[in-house]
Design a protein that fits this description.
about 35 residues, mainly alpha, 2 helices, about 80% helix, rod-shaped
Amino acid sequence: MSEPRPIKRARSLWTKVERGKSVGKFATGDQNTVAG
């Protein structure tokens, strides 16, 4: 089951944003959210 291209792009962008958030939290030393 292949998805329409916009959905796939949005999903990859979402994962990229989430990864950036977690990396940013780790960089700033926000232990509460990193220790999930």
